[in-house]
Amino acid sequence: MIKIYHNNRCSKSRSGVAILENSGKEFEIVKYLDNVPSVEELTEIINLLNISPIELVRKNEKIWKENFKGKELSDNEIITAMVENPKLIERPIVINGNKAVVGRPPEVINDIL
Asked: 10 an active-site residue?
């Protein structure tokens, strides 16, 4: 089942949901601000994306700038920061089996459908 980690307040995330709806495929919406992924889940997502944890961080968020910017953080510390502050997680993330993308721009979602 296709899964999208979604924040309805984000236009890119809403566009990602629209792409999935238009695909006609079944998918699950995970409202990750309400249903925050665990450290293990987020680690698995990062591995599927084939990126480093820092690449999934929204670095312009106030929380990041005030608490983490400029600090030397390990990958585990970055993942923990995202789990404790889910607004820091880039969105939308779409997972289809063993493939995943960050939908920025949303059109890249088509690459894994």
From this structure: yes
